[in-house]
Fold each of these.
Amino acid sequence: MNKEIFVKLLEQRQYKAVRSILDVMNEVDIASLLTELNDRDLAIAFRLIPKDKAAEVFANTDGSLQAKLVAVFSETELRELVDDLYMDDTVDILEELPANLVNRILDTVSPSDRALINQLLNYPEDSAGSIMTTEYVDIRESMTVAQTMAHIKETGIHKETIYTCYVTDRRKLIGIVSAKDLMTTDDDVLIRDLMETEIISVSTHTDREEVAKLFTKYDFLALPVLDTDGRMVGIVTFDDAMDVMVEEATEDITKMAAMNPSEKSYFETSVLGHARNRIPWLLILMFTSIITGTIITKYEDAFAAIPLLVSFIPMLMDTGGNCGSQSSTLIIRGLALSQIRFRDIFKVVFKEFRISLVVGSVLAVTNGIRIMIQYQDINLAIVIALSLIGTVIAAKLVGCMLPLFASKAHLDPAIMASPLITTLVDIFSILIYFNVATILFQL
Amino acid sequence: MNKEIFVKLLEQRQYKAVRSILDVMNEVDIASLLTELNDRDLAIAFRLIPKDKAAEVFANTDGSLQAKLVAVFSETELRELVDDLYMDDTVDILEELPANLVNRILDTVSPSDRALINQLLNYPEDSAGSIMTTEYVDIRESMTVAQTMAHIKETGIHKETIYTCYVTDRRKLIGIVSAKDLMTTDDDVLIRDLMETEIISVSTHTDREEVAKLFTKYDFLALPVLDTDGRMVGIVTFDDAMDVMVEEATEDITKMAAMNPSEKSYFETSVLGHARNRIPWLLILMFTSIITGTIITKYEDAFAAIPLLVSFIPMLMDTGGNCGSQSSTLIIRGLALSQIRFRDIFKVVFKEFRISLVVGSVLAVTNGIRIMIQYQDINLAIVIALSLIGTVIAAKLVGCMLPLFASKAHLDPAIMASPLITTLVDIFSILIYFNVATILFQL
């Protein structure tokens, strides 16, 4: 939808046309259109959205827009909106809103809903409890397929998903029936005879990353969440799991570039916010690389005698850093996808050792030829070639081992990525280089 | 399931017990159990899997295991297996199998299926066509809800998903009805009055990454795929989209660490395979950093006069590299999630400039104090402080601009990550450093 046309229609009060447009638009697209309107147009446009879409549009807008809308809504409008929102979306919205607006919303809901919302707000931030919804189809094993279908017809419209029905007995989960099974089975079959009893579930305190991994592994549409007493309290749906996957990948990538992850997007984070996320690691890495500098001063005599030696420092340091990050990146990703485990450490180290022999030799020969052509100095070529092979081996071994040790120590392996590896490998490459040079040039 | 117990039961020919175990296990878990068996046990175990699970277990095992099984299957077994497999899984499997086994499978299917499989095998590797399935629920707008439900009961069991039904008219897609709508609507309502006509679809040639993005954006369960003439030819389901998301994130992370991405996992890739993926970028970056080395030789007089200058090279180079990768990483991720676009370039550059002033000042002051304490040399402190600020600004600007230019030039921004940025920023940091030093120390 073209924004200009939409705004023009709004300003000309062509509300019927606006309503027709909103009628055919997807909720996600309406939400992104709303972000481009000014405050007055926004309130009018939102009230013109067809009632059955309004809640989903609202859930898809960002925090600042939601705050604006809640501030102008009447109490009746608020009550209607919250009624139509799924419980997990309500909680997500409340987590973002300023306190006075949170109270406005909590005042409109029933006491039982208020208790439930407060409970959901109390689950740890990255837990299954914090992303679950409490609206699911709850059935008994003594029901028939026809009775279940009738039950769904009656209550299903308010459930986030009806494609998995949960068979409970005194709040304990005893079975699962998919809508596909219901729709392709005869009416008089008992749920007891249809339900699957091999159930994979999570607890309210399971880390949301673990939850997302289960979704990718088993291709679930929804996953039941049990409390510490094993009673069913909610479900996590696949759309929330997909969001978690994207957020977790962003978090890992951010950490791998030596920054503290932020929940906000690039433009939502302020200049000072960005600086705060970036400075701590830069300081740590800066002081680590001072060690490398200090080591270099120990070899002052060497490069005073052969100043050309200094010019190879960047090449050796960069190659070492790159080799190290290649290995650490593959290991970090393999750990994240559960393809590599700590017990594989010897296999990994042996593999990286062989890879570094191949890689190191290719780089050494290429560079050796380059130096022979440029300087016609066989000793220099040998020094650089040997240093390169040593650096590549050291870099790959450090690069593959540190993330594995981090995982063993229950640290996030992602912090053992390029920047830290690079700085550590620098020390090795400088030591190898100047020692080889000192010996071969008899300095 | 404990592997040892399972193998023992197999060897003792306790097939009834084995079958009971397989009966309650999840398909994905059975598949991973099979990978641990030897060839003889494998064939026996597979034949003991309940018939309604066999196809899904098969689809969840890896290529080498599938090849082993296909090789030992009788023609009847093969035909039954392929009948039960969804079309997209069959195609995935055929893409991995050696040619003689592909022919064995193609011989068992009907001529029309064979034509379809061959067509699916011909779609470009990363296209929607290559990941779609051709089994979906196809209905007419003149049907009622009850007729549709009856149609699903009859044909649904063989469809990969029945939760979205597609209303077509002479193969053109005219509407969509969800199973939720069907299950919560009265029997005599016409599909025409129930269907949604605002349809988001992709073409057979749409890049699979684009397809995955649509799933994350709109939370779809399935997405219709149209051919170039606008006729409906298949659907992509959310589980395939999730797999694509994980694969694409891995691909980006791999590229960002200066490696060619591989479709195989870490252990599946051979030593030479790893070396081949890593060497090209290492060579390119090595030769780029030789430029930095050459620049250093131009300042031989400077560090011959003050050898201490050399010891600050690693710190400046590392800090520049780290600052540059921080910026480039955030921009690359923002581009991948469509949160940042090329048209934002001025906003980004201005933001990074302000961030680099803050970050640069903090690093400069910290380091200045350190140098004053260690060397009591105010000139040296000023040289390093100024060089740090200059390096941070240059690094952040290069780091944020290169991925944006890459996206504009339709290159993958992920290649503009840490390693390349680091090597380029090195040149800036060395030039800034030695020029500041030459001026301030009047060398």
Note: The first strand of chain A starts at residue 137 and ends at 139.
Amino acid sequence: MIEDKNQQRTQLSDLGEFGLIDHLTKNFEIKHKSTVKGIGDDAAVLGFKNKNIVITTDLLVEGVHFDLSYMPLKHLGYKSVIVNLSDVYAMNAEATQITVSIAVSNRFPLEALEDLYVGIETAAKIYNIDVVGGDTTSSTTGLLISVTAIGEVKSNNEVYRDGAKPNDLLVVTGDLGAAYMGLQVLEREKEVYKVNPNSQPDLSPYSYIIERQLKPEARKDIIKLLKDLEVKPSSMIDISDGLSSEIIHLCKQSKVGCDVYEEKIPLDPQVISTCEEFNIDSTTVALNGGEDYELLFTMSQDDYSKIKANPNLTVIGYMKVAQVGIHLVTRADTKIPIKAQGWKNFNV
Amino acid sequence: MIEDKNQQRTQLSDLGEFGLIDHLTKNFEIKHKSTVKGIGDDAAVLGFKNKNIVITTDLLVEGVHFDLSYMPLKHLGYKSVIVNLSDVYAMNAEATQITVSIAVSNRFPLEALEDLYVGIETAAKIYNIDVVGGDTTSSTTGLLISVTAIGEVKSNNEVYRDGAKPNDLLVVTGDLGAAYMGLQVLEREKEVYKVNPNSQPDLSPYSYIIERQLKPEARKDIIKLLKDLEVKPSSMIDISDGLSSEIIHLCKQSKVGCDVYEEKIPLDPQVISTCEEFNIDSTTVALNGGEDYELLFTMSQDDYSKIKANPNLTVIGYMKVAQVGIHLVTRADTKIPIKAQGWKNFNV
């Protein structure tokens, strides 16, 4: 029936990921009192007495989310865990367990999967999580990895996307745009390799940005830091799709506006130099690059003194009332509306 | 690196699913005290005070687990939920939440995904579960569905695969082999359709077996029934890969043997007649067909009086000490060892 040419057809690319999930699940009802939070945040929240469980899942598809011509399988295993843990931390929770399912074609030998699982095991060790389940199956083409991560948080300590208030500070961890620029370098080297398989590129000037692409880390340390500093964010999200779309998520769900200062956006020197080399605007990269797996959160200005000396945290703007909108304040002191770049995977 | 021709290559088909999961995860350590049970049962078990959480995940791949030329998307959505709920019930737990992730190529219009989600929503309503999360992404080919199901069970009420004791009764719910024979009929009709697209087959003689293939149900009712009857199984598993491989799982994990009586295996009349039509042995189909989503459990003989009148439950054999092995006692009263048919998906 899928091939019926007469049926009404709406292209998925017209909706994008967020429109699609909203559209498909808008009629779904919540029936269990243990369901504290369903679809619409970094993770779902289930309530059990004084402890809440968060649960989140991600699907990584070969040819869409990763390219095995430059992604070692160990790193892929590691990264597939990290992207899920990042969602758990974005709820202000401690990650405790994961399940890992893979679909794999016969072109992969056992040794390839062993490499993948070494990466998974390494991430599990470093982040102190248990691998508690999974499923392996065959695929007709390529490799697919589905990870579900589970975390724990004391009841009422979880942080959603919808708690930001006007005048709250907008804070980002680490620096942005590096994973995207690492990908640009890897894509360029792939093209060079196609022309001359004997070329030995010197990638050392790009070591940081390539590592950010191939072996990202999740900000478990920030959850501990915020606890130690006694700062509870009013809203939080992890930066997977890019700063601009995450800012829009926080603003829309919290029903607030925002001013973000271009000059405050943290960039690593390697990102700046590589952007110059590729002739790309570094602010555009920081706003839209994605895969940073940093945390973006809002917090009360009253707590500013607790965070101001911390090198991991950068205040990049202020939340406003919804009516003023969401803007980037440029270095030239002009205001540009921040728009979602949308989710381009359906155009691949 | 995956294309390096010099690396050691072990074919995945040499291991099969169970060997593969065991092999890949054998070094994984459990670190959290909330992890009551990790890999190796129908679901993982996480402990929280007097309630345990079970969690299980399954990946369904187009061309491996389903064929859209005869699987309506509504049914596929429904079935993708059912196969996971079945694992939750096999732990003696109540299913409460699911997450659903899909990877889909641009060949699918929105309306196709709406159909898929209608099936998911229908299952969620009927089985009283909340859809709490998910992820949509693109795929380069075909459709892929990953479902994670979460359930709750009172601490110590969960039932594992490893609790069967010699002399326990081996009990199966419903009847077996129907989903497999339904698939044979659908495959045959697909071939007929290829030759003559205008043929209008009369499938009414196969209505039950086709429904078992396209729209299976999970035995939520049995969990309630066992509770009402005050029967706690000593071990339990759901029948997804086929009766013989599930019996082997229970026996190996419980370190027991088993006699299964061919004449006791419950078969629907439509299975028997269709097996005759296709010239296939119905016992072979019941043992190896799979996708029944019935429950297979063991229980103390002391409780036999509680279940003997129940039409949903059939005693098909007895557990023995491990040394005597695992056998089928045929209608001719000969004993044949039951062997795993293995998991053939890697040979697709």
Note: The mean pLDDT of chain B is 90.
Amino acid sequence: MKPVKVGLLGLGTVGTGVVRIVEGHQHDLMSQSGSPIEISKILVKDKSKARSIHVSEDKLTESAWDIIESPDVDVIVEVMGGIEQTKELMLAALDRGKHIVTANKDLMALHGPEILQKAAEKGCDVMYEASVAGGIPIIRTLIEGFSSDRITKIMGIVNGTTNYILTKMSQEGAAYDDVLKEAQQLGYAESDPTSDVEGFDAARKMTILATLGFHANIALSDVTAKGISKVSKEDIAYGKKLGYEVKLLGIAERQDEHISISVQPTMVKHSHPLAAVNGVFNAVYVYGEAVGETMFYGPGAGEMPTATSVVADLVAVVRNSNLGVNGRRGFVPYKEKKLKTDEQISSKNFILLHVEDKAGVLAQITQVFAQHEVSLESVLQHPNQSNPLAEIIIITHDANKASMNNVLKQFESMSAVHAIKSVYRVEG
Amino acid sequence: MKPVKVGLLGLGTVGTGVVRIVEGHQHDLMSQSGSPIEISKILVKDKSKARSIHVSEDKLTESAWDIIESPDVDVIVEVMGGIEQTKELMLAALDRGKHIVTANKDLMALHGPEILQKAAEKGCDVMYEASVAGGIPIIRTLIEGFSSDRITKIMGIVNGTTNYILTKMSQEGAAYDDVLKEAQQLGYAESDPTSDVEGFDAARKMTILATLGFHANIALSDVTAKGISKVSKEDIAYGKKLGYEVKLLGIAERQDEHISISVQPTMVKHSHPLAAVNGVFNAVYVYGEAVGETMFYGPGAGEMPTATSVVADLVAVVRNSNLGVNGRRGFVPYKEKKLKTDEQISSKNFILLHVEDKAGVLAQITQVFAQHEVSLESVLQHPNQSNPLAEIIIITHDANKASMNNVLKQFESMSAVHAIKSVYRVEG
């Protein structure tokens, strides 16, 4: 049987894992896909570099176009990253009838609709399971597993770096800066950690998940993102005392066809399954009208987990080829996108205030909430030895974001309120 | 566009859920599957019975053959249960070119290979996502999501009734009999609970999961099953003290192509994600050579969760029909089944002994382990106020089952050992 020929763009961590699996599992992959799979060309930056795996030198090239234009390549596996230039290469590959498997969340979050549109026109597959939550097959789960249900909420711990940092801060009572430095030394965080710690990476993944879950073309600009760089060890300690863990959650919600998507550090109740997801692990919690609560847990990154998802996609492309249905099982968003206004976005909130420690202040504070029709679940006043101010922790009932913003604005103008130390969304 | 016509066998809990979803989500289902889906005939036991949903009376029939033989039915949805007679109906439906969606674990565990074989011959789909772990799409995950990996271990909490009972026993320190009675009153346990509490239901589900995960035709008789009816509140309390929860786990393992599958109450370490799966929830933990640890969590039963999986399968059948690939995406086991011997099955173990409280007994006990080359992780001797015997709790390192059986046999013949109170496998 004629082998399916793969052009591999990138031989970094994930690319190396892909070579290991394709070469190591030849027999299994053929049994499952129906054809032998052969990596025929590999794009590298430097052909002469030493590598941890053996690859025959005549497969290597330093030119992506060598691979895109080769008639000897059926499927492109893109694990090199990049956005604009990579997009051009992918569109050119589709123009030449090549299928695509990619692990590139940035590409799919920013240019997914354009690429998928071109693929449909050309009868090609584009698969991207590895772009979100590395080893967890969450994309097929949303497309196939929940095709019959109406998903109303997706909450994801989809960034391993920030989950590692928050877990360490929680378990060791350590400060953000110290843990970040340690994570950088261990290779869990980049030397410029902005994309991870400010929530931008998670926002890209949530763009992809929300598009699939809500069947509408969500744009990255629809996602509001707030990172963890302002999370203090005090916040974590207070949260813990009240029964919460701080997690960087991506939250996509739908109510009556209106959608909101955000990424922010969130107080997650200990009894919620996401609260126990620790270290570099990822998890995606999906709530469906019919199915109720589900959660999918696994490694979010790493050579072999991510390569597993890439090669599973490759198997699916080969199965489709053998059935003659490439480009015909794609996901097509069929709903109009309607975003929630701030009046429609609602959640519980955790607020930590520093206020003057004198009679009547608490009454003033609670009066502000009442005035904006935000009702309170609990109020905790805490003496603070180190300064003459009182600390007040408030947990609200569900309140809309517009009202909450008005409450906070009013606090800013009150002389009795010295600082709004922190505000978190609360889940669970 | 011509609607796909469904013959629904059974209008109990799950059947009612299927009708609700198919009728309530018409537009969404059509957008995703490409065709309208219509339930054209429904098998009921008694046409005159009052129901919680409205169904037009001319769709109802009391004869399964009415549906199987109807040229007006394209897909059979079987949610009535039963084994031998149901198998005959399913084979007859396949002979007539009808596709099958079933939630019937008993049918698939006992007759899966025969039914799938016939389906392949006839170019028909047989889908059974709802047969294991109700709302969790674990079957597609094993077939598609992990197609590139080598799965070495599947551990499942796949029976909600027993997980409810064990959770209650753990959280309230209650005795088995009392919690079982309560579960029966709440409808979580059958009046004859044997199939659930003795592990037979879980064994059937593990037969299906192991077949998919290991690509070999596993038979129900390959699964050893032990239930929870002998689990005492003392066992649970001791486990907790040492950092374990007792869970009824189905465990399917593979090592060098040798497989073992069992169901038994197991001490699961608190840090393991399965330890936190409580109440009637189900979870399946999958370990793959490449991906590492993953876990899939959700409702294991119930009208709407199970119906979600049934209708997702129905959508998949309709998609396949529209692509003309029915019966060609099926799962085909391609590996020879080789079962592990007792010498090859290995695990850590928890053993609780009642022994004579006198000098030298502990030395005798540990001597027995040494003699059979079972090394020990910890030994805890516990004074017991209520009787003149000492309690000894031993946790072994990994030990093979044959050696463990020899150890236990030798204890039985020792006068110093008054009782082997309990033996559990240990995981995590």
Note: The first helix of chain B runs from residue 13 to 24.
Amino acid sequence: MTIRELEDQQLLRLREVFGERVSTVKADLIAHGRDEGYPDTHAPQAVVYAESEADVVAALRLARELHVPITPYAAGSGLEGNAVPWRGGISLDLTRMNRVLLIESANFSATVEPGVLYPELSRQARPHGLFFAVDPGAEASLGGMAATGASGTAAVKYGTMRDNVLEMRVALLDGRVLRVGSRAPKSSAGYDLKHLFLGSEGTLGVITELTVRLWPLPASAASMQVSFASVDDAVTATVMIIGAGIGPQRLELVDAETIRAVNFYKGRSDAEQPTLWIEVIGRDGADVATQLALVEELCRESGGAVTGRATTEAQRTELWTARHHVYYALRAMYPGHSNRLGDVCVPIAALPGAIAITQQLLREHQLHAPIVGHVGDGNFHLLFHAAPEDAATWERIALVSDTITREALRMGGTCTGEHGVGIRKRKYLRDEHGEALDAMREIKSLFDPYGLLNPGKIFEE
Amino acid sequence: MTIRELEDQQLLRLREVFGERVSTVKADLIAHGRDEGYPDTHAPQAVVYAESEADVVAALRLARELHVPITPYAAGSGLEGNAVPWRGGISLDLTRMNRVLLIESANFSATVEPGVLYPELSRQARPHGLFFAVDPGAEASLGGMAATGASGTAAVKYGTMRDNVLEMRVALLDGRVLRVGSRAPKSSAGYDLKHLFLGSEGTLGVITELTVRLWPLPASAASMQVSFASVDDAVTATVMIIGAGIGPQRLELVDAETIRAVNFYKGRSDAEQPTLWIEVIGRDGADVATQLALVEELCRESGGAVTGRATTEAQRTELWTARHHVYYALRAMYPGHSNRLGDVCVPIAALPGAIAITQQLLREHQLHAPIVGHVGDGNFHLLFHAAPEDAATWERIALVSDTITREALRMGGTCTGEHGVGIRKRKYLRDEHGEALDAMREIKSLFDPYGLLNPGKIFEE
């Protein structure tokens, strides 16, 4: 594939169509050349700030006409280089398309532009007694979350982005805009193109509008922190909690290393053991208290010891702060270090084995990397870190990360639970998907015959 | 497209490969030429009884070699002609692939062959404290349900077939077998081919194995029957029940006409008004009693009157028998009549309007057709019926059905909520999907360049 850089003539043409909405200011180019988690910068030659679907269509048409790569960009909160313009060209900035267009409370849905940040949607839904349930943590955009197939801590209850998008409008390279999915809660009318675009990371088209599900705000919630002698015991408790039909809103596992970091950062003295954070929701205080008692009983059966309990809003915030501050704790413990976030997902029953292997690898390679797991989903992250210039450690991190990913695949898992493929995970897709990867490539060629849509992502070149 | 019939030479070749597993017995051909809901029979020229994935692959390869159509068939419980071999050729019977291969209780999953009937899976899962949650009512096969994107009464709680398949093996026409999806609870690793095959009705490939989700058996359940002055009031109550976060297991609406039929059939005297059947589940009797009290309060706010209540297993069976006997009631009321089942789905808020238009159309055209709705999903069925030879009535049924479907589309709904496209719904896909239909055709061509996989379905020829 030959991708040309933008020539003066091409920039003129961009300016002709987009005027002030094109930027070639160096700071803009650099800002659009990186994300939260990918270490290298690949700057575009131009940034086009789309303000409407028509702008997106025009930009795609121009990319085709000029035969230059085009990569959609919004919050820049991706972790695998998903929005990094690997081959340069145009960065299509969608942050100005940030309007919540419609909240339909009787349909439990909202229609938004792709640049809306998800906390903003929840804020606007609150007066309707509703909220948006997918919470990846970072200030992510809904378009980016849909394009990545993102999820977060509440997926065990509400599902991932894939489960929470009803309908989308997607602009294709050839100028067509498809409406995929349906605002009806279910449909069996033909091929499911919605799910094809969800998680396709801008390699098939650009999402210009989304209708997403909203959920009723829980009337009551309560949380508990439980420490266990081993990860095995914590996962056994998790399986029993789900099996009892409790359906917790969050079920988060961290390892002893993580508790150590949080203790250091927050001046706490929690038991430095594998720990579950569990949040249940219900219709009132009595309901959640009963659920929490049941959770406690099941945890005790696996040898768990309750180390925290929260029934008021203030207590919950305090309890979850520890969980939410894992990243900051890590940064505080290792000032000046850069981070890399591992992300694999395995069948739940395989989780203790996967984490045991992970811990052994970390010991063998003398790495300290806290483990944070969305344990109800079999998904866990490793918070690798090292000084930016410490090449030897980064090499060991790459090796350990690679081994863990291959082990996850061997267990029937996936190389990425919620961060997408981006650049670094491309090499695992053959192992994970076998011949299905060829079918994916064939579909890619159908929608993007010239390889202009976010080239270098998902597929190895 | 030219599709040749099987010639003697071709039959010889089939027998060479499949021996006794090929049938050309007339009764077999006719049995494989129809389903539960499509009025016409289109017999295949041969039935191949696959006993393994290798048989499926061999049959697909032969279909390609001989250039004859091939249509998968299992329970034959489809309603739109989904498995009817419209263009003849080979009917690929999967009923002998009926083994539950694996139940992994700690993963809340089961792996099955496509011919397994879903009640059988629930039966085998019960000793593990689990069940399979998608229940379309008929004795459907799991492969067929996946291929149709089926759902049923419990979708409001557990989702549809699309939400309950984790992984599949799919045999393609070119002999490849793809593994799509993942046994990990979530993944963002590349294009979602699983959802592309789910609901593709055997037009892209043949499902040879499925790993599906199992759910914990509810510890306790209770039901309530509530009658309302209008469908509007019943839907208002539904939105309030969902909005209160109760998350009922079932939320079924029937119209006055249906209650009349059930009263006649079962010798009951329920109020002949729009009626909701609601089932809630919980951790114990007190939990479901509290939920039921809240449901009752919300229904009363919309003018609902409780006409039945069931807390014991025996009472629940009695209460739901009425709902489940709607079809039999109809048959008893109109002996000798044939049926046709309407199936549209709209955004929940549009449901009262859709049902009002439907009732008006039925009155205008002097048709009696009970309305049965999975109201929590915005999905409703019309139970049309007439004497088989009554051409004038069938013509009115076709007209009314067509008008309702187009109205549903106008409201942002879908032409089929859970029965698939099959033959009769093909003509609505352009209206429903616009240019996305062209993209679907392009994908069809990719996987089936000769139009041999279940030709005549989903797309108009």
Note: Chain A has a mean pLDDT of 94.
